[in-house]
Amino acid sequence: MPTSSDRPVPAGTPDAQAAGQPMVAAPPGAPAAGPPQRPPAVLRLDDVAAGYGAAPIVSGVSISVGSGEVVSVIGPNGAGKSTLLKTVTGRLPVMAGTITFGDRDVTNMRGNRLARMGLGFVPQTRDVFDTLTVAENLEMGGYLLSKSQIAARVDTVLSVFPALAGMQSRTASKLSGGERKMLAMARVLMLEPSVLVLDEPTSNLSPDLSRSVLRDQVRRLADAGTAVLLVEQKAFEALGVSDWAYILVAGRVEIAGPAEDILARPDIREVFLGRSSNADEAAGG
Amino acid sequence: MNTLLPAIGFGLVTASILAVAGVGFTLQFGVTNILNLAYGDIMTAAAFVAYLVTSAGVSVWLALVAGAAFGGVFSVVLNRALYTPFVRHGTRLFGMIIVTISVSLIVQNGLQAIFGASFFSLNMPRPAPIHVAGMVFTTVQFAIIGIAVAAMLLVHLLLRYTKLGKAMRATASDPELARNCGIATDRVIDLAWALSGTLCGLAGVILVMNVTAFTDTTGSQFLIPVVAVAVLGGIGQPYGAMLGALIIGIASEVAAAVISPDYKNVVAFVILVIVLLARPQGILSEIATRKEVAA
Which residues in chain B touch residue A130, judged by CB atoms under 8 angstroms apart? Predict the structure, then answer.
């Protein structure tokens, strides 16, 4: 168990992050890191509280995502990660605090209006329309587009996910886990979202497919300029493709900082990510 | 053989009415997850609208349009004014069933208060018989089959080939995901109530066109077979309801002719129970309904 002296520095405000202040304390003896450069926030949560019923599951949460960034929210089971994403995507009401998209306050805005503004969401489960075909799912993903725009976007999206091209008439409920996740990603890309929120995109996927989704799809999207907010149980894999990360514990952000710094911290690895450096060495990592 | 073919003919007429009513019922449930047990009474109310129109000397076909329009408007208003506020206050599936039963009793007793506990019939020309392949229909029954086929075809075209129809199916599949795609689910739900109500009104009028007399309980008595059709086909599945209507409609009329009219409903519901034992989710439903009431 960590003592109070070796407990990492609590996360600061998004203003502090935007100013480039390091949000995670350097381990004892480590060289001082320079301030990480983050792009201006596209999506920003300030002191947000949310939950089911009267009691908040998350509270005082301040996080931000900038264009071209992959930002991970990681933490143990029950930390409130999915609750946080449901709040961001208009599925759960905000009890306190504000959510800003660009320069617009979108607190408690419904999902369909957020989609119009450019926020795409892939839930952990129920991520496609089971009773619709693959082609119809893509069409619904591009619901806000005209018929000709939908056709053009379908071509573009299928070039990213060519495996879907041969199964357009198949009902989504008949897809395998990997195919389903591909469809969910393809569906959300139909509107070319400026912010993409992903809730455990690798759940139920094989390790190879998980790596492919995170390294090939998620990273590639961010490199193309999309702001990606990622919640993932596979914390190491998520941090491996992330620029910035927040560690959520019991509904609060305990640590925030550059993903590679968090990955390099043995204390954080042991306490929050459940893996020791010795284990990594034994595993050749 | 002498009785079988005419029985199949009767069955086709019953199936046609059941199909129109069943598709409307299941479509609305699929999109909103509200089991509207006032559906049968809205059918009756639409029949009374048609009764008033024909009593004024207007053609029964215009009365049919008036009844269908009444059903659509009444259903949208009912949802907006009553059901949606309950859903927004957190009333769940079972609570909503109680609310819809209350509406059913209000409509039924309201109709009885207005029109009295009596028998009514539409003022329409006496239909002529038509013989087709050993089956005997009246011109009105023939029209009912045609109306049902046309209605089912339109519903099919709407659901399969229009953006609105696909949005309805998407909302029925997962309303939250539909919203996250940018679909204005409130508007889609309004339109689903309008479509369902129109089919409900249409079914109410063709139901009373096919009988010599009706009362303030005619629609509510028809509700159980309508629910059975929806459950048999897979609740929320319009195509399942069409198939369910065909099975229950023909089976009940054939049972009435071959065994005894007393067994009409017995045979239909035995089929329902057997099918549900094998496929609890209904004939055409691939997935069980998991979602909450859509708001």
Answer: 173-174, 286-287
Query: CB distance B183–A123 less than 8 Å?
Result: no
State the residue for tokens 């912010």: A195
Number of domains in chain A: 1
Range of the domain at A273: 14-25+36-282
Segment B253-289, tens digit of pLDDT: 888 888 888 888 788 788 888 888 888 777 776 544 4
The pLDDT tens digits for B202-256 are: 999 999 999 989 999 999 999 989 988 988 888 778 888 899 999 999 998 888 8
Does A213 fall in a domain?
yes
What would the 3-class secondary structure string for B73-90 be? HHHHHHHHHHHHHHHHCC
Query: Under an 8 A CB cutoff, do A129 and B163 touch?
Result: no
Contacts of B169 in chain A (CB under 8 A): 129, 131-132, 136
Provide the shortest C-alpha distance from residue B182 to chain A (in Å). Answer: 4
CATH number for position A111:
3.40.50.300
Distance from CA of A109 to the nearest CA of B (A): 11
Establish if A128 belongs to a structural domain. yes
Three-class DSSP labels, B176-243: HHHHHCCCCHHHHHHHHHHHHHHHHHHHHHHHHHCCCCECCCHHHHHHHHHHHHHHHHCCCCHHHHHH
Residue A31 covered by a domain: no
B4-278 has which fold? ABC transporter involved in vitamin B12 uptake, BtuC (1.10.3470)
Two tokens, residue A59: 């509270």
The enclosing H or E element of B253 equals helix B238-258
Q: Rounded to whole angstroms, how far apart are CA atoms B79 and B190?
A: 8
Helix pair angle (B264-278, B218-233), 10° resolution: 30
> What ipTM goes with this model?
0.82
Kindly give the residue spans of alpha helices, DSSP state H, lying in chain A: 14-18, 81-88, 111-117, 134-141, 147-160, 177-189, 207-211, 219-223, 235-241, 259-264, 266-271, 277-282
Write the residue in A111, A131, A132 that is nearest to B179 by C-beta. Answer: A111
Chain B residue with CA closest to A131: the answer is B173
Burial class from Cβ neighbours inside 10 Å (0-12, 13-18, 19+) for residue A275 reads middle
**B201 vs B1: CA distance, rounded Å:** 36
A3 in any annotated domain: no
